[in-house]
Amino acid sequence: MPPSQKDGYVPGLTRGIELDATDRALIAELQVDGRVPFVELGRRLGLSEKTVRNRVSALLSSDVIRIIGLTDPRMLGFEAIAMVGLTTDPAVPASQIAAEIAGIRDIDYVVVTTGRYSIMVEILATSPERLRHVIERQIGPIAGVRSMEIFPCFSLFYQKARFLAEGPASGVRSSPLSELDRRLAMVLSTDGRMPFRVAADRLGISETQVRARVSAMLEARQLSILAIMNPLAVGRSVAWLGLKIASGARCEDVASHLADDPSVSYVFICGGRFDLFVEVICDNDSQLYSAIDKRFRSDRRIANAELFYYLDLHYKILSDID
User: Fold this and answer.
1) Which residue stretches of the chain have pLDDT < 70?
2) What is the C-alpha to C-alpha distance for residues 201 and 116, in angstroms, rounded to an integer?
3) Percent above pLDDT 70 for the chain
4) What are 226's strand-pairing partners?
5) Is 44 helix (H, G, I), strand (E, B) or coil?
6) Closest by alpha carbon to 249, among 308, 316, 302, 305?
7) Which stretches within 134-267 are classed as H helix?
8) FRET pair for 30, CA 20 to 30 Å: which of 128, 135, 248, 261?
9) Are 66 and 104 in contact (CB under 8 A)?
10) Which secondary structure element, helix H or strand E, spans residue 120, and what is its range?
């Protein structure tokens, strides 16, 4: 059992460890293909297989990275998803409130941010009743929380956790999975490098079937197997954009267009004050400002864009909240 939060432990990906050039190069390769053999990684980077294996093991054991199968959480049983914007009492540090919220099982993403909200939270719940419980019984009573604005998710339209690797990257788009694919994605969501033979044994199917189904899901962009990490750990500039779509424009058309932008890592179609939440990750603040100014504010289909700049981030994976 992991230590409790009372012992100072908050589950999730760490951002407090210094990474050297070799670590960054390894992570970049694993963000392209999380299952690439260590021998091949060594060949690409001029390292021995032993060095690669030891380095990757250290990154995993220190929670700098996790190598997972990424898919739409709804396909894994998280049927009630919402973004929540919180205002807080200035007398209570927002970072303290965020750390307490991050300890709640159903929460995978907690951002201390600028703008109208002090903290933004993503909740992945298994039912509307559980979602309501988390909001009313677990977040609401936390000391320092003043108010909440809730944005129910209609579609987790696009996810792309790759931001270190060079070149174009294809993210995961929301689409239904067959029952077998859903079970396979669930298994790989905890360990993307799990041997296919082991996955086959767990599911009671052949290794050949596992390989074929994984290949098909990757090709259809229903699944991505890669190393994920906290982008703030490598000095990236990150922001949520809350977007209101102009009258006459279709939300899904705008979402599809934005998903093709290389700086966009997440597109969340929702209800409430905003129609879309879009996460933007850039190398630095200058690039972030340029991306927002040129690619979002100039789009006539977007009536309003509101910026929520990341000051801190607690990032958990599904196995931390399941």
Assistant:
1) 1-11, 165-169, 319-322
2) 50
3) 93
4) 68
5) helix
6) 302
7) 179-188, 196-203, 207-219, 251-259
8) 261
9) no
10) strand 119-125
